[in-house]
Amino acid sequence: MKHRLLRVNELLKRELSALIVREMEFENLLVTVNQVDVTPDLKTAHVYISVLGGNGHTNVIAELEEARAMLQHDLSKQVILKYTPHLIFHLDDSIERGSRVLEIMQEIETPEDEPDSL
Q1: DSSP state, 114?
Q2: CA–CA distance from 80 to each of 42, 43, 62, 118 (Å)?
Q3: What is the arithmetic mean of pLDDT over 70-97?
Q4: What is the pLDDT of residues 14-72, one digit of tens each?
Q5: Integer CA distances (angstroms), 50 to 44, 56, 89, 94, in order
Q6: Whole-angstrom Cα distance, residue 23 to residue 21?
Q7: What is the full DSSP assignment across 30-56?
Q8: How far apart are CA 63 and CA 59, in angstroms?
C-alpha cells in the first residue's frame, strides 16, 4: 500500500503541475508544485506550492483555492481513481529560504572590505 501512495502522489503532482501551467496564469510569478501528500483513504490531497518572484504569495494560494473545483474536475478526467481527492493548498517556502541561505553564504565568502594587497 505504501508504494501505491507514493505512485499516486507522484502522478497527482505531475498532472496538477501540468493543469496549473495550462489553465492558470500568474503574472511575473513562477508557481510550482513541490509535493503532493495523499491521505491513505485517497480522499484528501495536501498540495505544497512554491512561488518565486514578486510578493503575491498569498494571492496565489487564494487563486488556487478559487480554482479548486475546476482543478479537481480536470484532474478526475486525467487520473482515474475511486475518489478524486479534495485538494488542500499549502505555501511551501523551502526553495525561497534555500535561495536566501545561499545568498547569505555567498556574502560571507566574499568579504567586501578586504584591502587589496599589492
Answers
A1: P
A2: 12, 13, 27, 70
A3: 82
A4: 999 888 888 888 777 788 888 889 988 888 999 898 887 766 666 888 888 888 888 88
A5: 20, 11, 10, 8
A6: 6
A7: EEEEEEEEE-TTSSEEEEEEEEESSS-
A8: 6
User: What is the average pLDDT value for the chain, to the nearest integer?
Assistant: 81
pLDDT-derived band at 114 (thresholds 50, 70, 90) equals low
For 10, residues 6+ apart whose C-beta sits below 8 A from its C-beta are 36
The total number of residues shown for the chain amounts to: 118
Nearest C-alpha neighbor of 93 from the set 58, 66, 42: 58
- Is residue 78 within 8 A of residue 36, CB to CB? The reply is no
Q: Give residue limits of the domains in the chain.
A: 2-93
Which secondary-structure segment (H or E) carries 91?
strand 86-91
Would you call 104 helix, strand, or coil by DSSP? helix
Question: What homologous superfamily is domain 2-93 in, according to CATH?
Answer: K homology (KH) domain (3.30.300.20)
